[in-house]
Amino acid sequence: MIGKLKNLSPFIIIFLFGFVTHWQWFINDGIFTYGDTIWSTHSKVSELVDFPNLMSYSNLGSINIALSIFPIDFIQGLLVKCGIDKDLVFKLFFLFPIALITPLSSYLLAYYILGNKLASITASSIFTYCTPIIVGTTGILTSSVVVAISPLIILYFIKFFNEQKISNLYICLLITAIGISYDVRFVFLVYLILFLYFIYFSIINFKYKYIKELLDFKITWSLLFFLILLLFLNLYWIQILFLPSDLINQIETRSLWGSNLVSLTHSLFLNHSIWNNSTLIPFLHNPIPISSILIPFFFIIALININKKNNLLIFFILLSLLGIFLTKMDHFPFINIYEWLYINIPGFSFFRESSKFYFFIAIGYSIVISSLIISIKNSVLKYLFFIIINTLYLINSLPLINSEIDTMYVERHIPKDYQ
Asked: What values do phi and psi take at 250, rounded to 5?
């Protein structure tokens, strides 16, 4: 019994923190809406039970570029029509996954790479409670759900190549399909990580014998079958990419925006520029909070003490550096590269501002900095470092707990005159 509780203790801890830091979402029955997250009536949600419509009725009619979210909308509408409260459905599909799956998935990824519970709990705290991830939960929740499940996509992709089990690939693609029905744009970033890992893994394992095994008949045809199936299941929205649409053209041809809101400093310190301790102040370079000051130094120390035999750690170091480089946008050094990528790389035009790439830094830093716990041999220092790092990031959750951050962390109520 004690052994089982010991094995479950990391999950109890991360779920407990997830519940406490997002307690409003679990306890309060009010309306949670802010910015791009729009509250809908019961009848509006019920109308989502319909076949996907290629045309949108907004702006006097246009191509429905949000067609990929049809599966999630359909299931929500179906549940509401079956009598389940629409606000509960909203919480089940958005708020609860953000609060609980985000720390869980990052813990599981870290544990696979580091194999240490303390380090993995720390990685979960860094990823879940860094300011860019928190800021994301105050805006477009569809992206935040993809952020929550992305570590699982990366985990099973890595496991597929390391263990060569086709079941890992199926799980990876299944979670990816779920992510696509939330936010196909953010899944593009996950695809980029998977592609980079494929290149990295191929380079460090370049052996004829391995390639022969990888191209085994069973694995190859299983992979091709599932990719074809996934493509077929997503044809309902992929078609819009090949249709003439002024709206899509406008999105793809937009000029870069927001370079004055990012900086190399904010990237290095893994701090979103609009974060101002307990509030969000947009369109301003807010100062780096005290809780973030030590983070780059811990990263550098981790680089010095890195276990060079752990190839996965090396990959996440490179991913962190790539995230820092992309998030700084067109600032020094190499000021023109982001613009070149924006113009020439397919799909990059959907990222006219670079804040989405904080995700690379967050997941990279969480793994690399947490690896320091493994390198510390003294038990007292090990637990002291564990407490310091987790405290630094959990401090960021205080505005969520006391609702000072407002946004999605304060319940709203319909005025009596409108009820």
From this structure: -65, -40
b or e along 75-104 (b: 16 or more beta carbons within 10 Å of the residue's beta carbon)? bbbebbeeeeebbebbbebbbbbbbbbbbb
| DSSP one-letter code for 288 | P
Helical H runs in 115-216? 117-129, 131-136, 141-163, 166-180, 184-204, 208-214
CA Rg, the chain, in Å?
A: 22
DSSP, res 294:
T
Which residues does 1 contact at the CB level (< 8 Å), separation at least 6? Answer: none
Taking a C-beta distance cutoff of 8 angstroms, is the pair 137, 275 a contact?
Answer: no
Amino acid type, 19 = F
Contacts of 407 by beta carbon, 8 Å cutoff, 6+ apart: 34, 35, 138, 139, 280
Whole-structure pTM value: 0.92
What contacts 227, CB < 8 A, 6 or more positions away? 173
Q: Give the containing element (helix H, strand E) for 343.
A: helix 337-344
CA distance 172 to 169: 5
| C-alpha span between 134 and 117 (Å, rounded) | 23
Cβ-contact 314, 306 below 8 angstroms: yes
Tokens of 195: 């592609």
Rounded Cα–Cα distance for residues 297 and 269 (Å): 9
Cα separation, 357 vs 124, in Å, equals 18
pLDDT tens string 9-64: 999 999 999 999 999 999 998 889 888 788 888 788 887 777 666 555 555 555 55
Nearest to 135 by CA among 325, 356, 294: 356
The rounded distance, in Å, linking the Cα atoms of 276 and 290 is: 11
pLDDT digits (tens, 9 = 90+) for 76-125: 999 999 999 999 999 999 999 999 999 999 999 999 999 999 999 999 99
State the number of CA atoms in the 13 A half-sphere of 236 facing the CB: 14
| 107 half-sphere exposure, CB direction, 13 A CA radius | 21
Residues 233 and 70 sit within 8 Å (Cβ to Cβ) = no
The residue to which tokens 């105050």 are assigned:
138
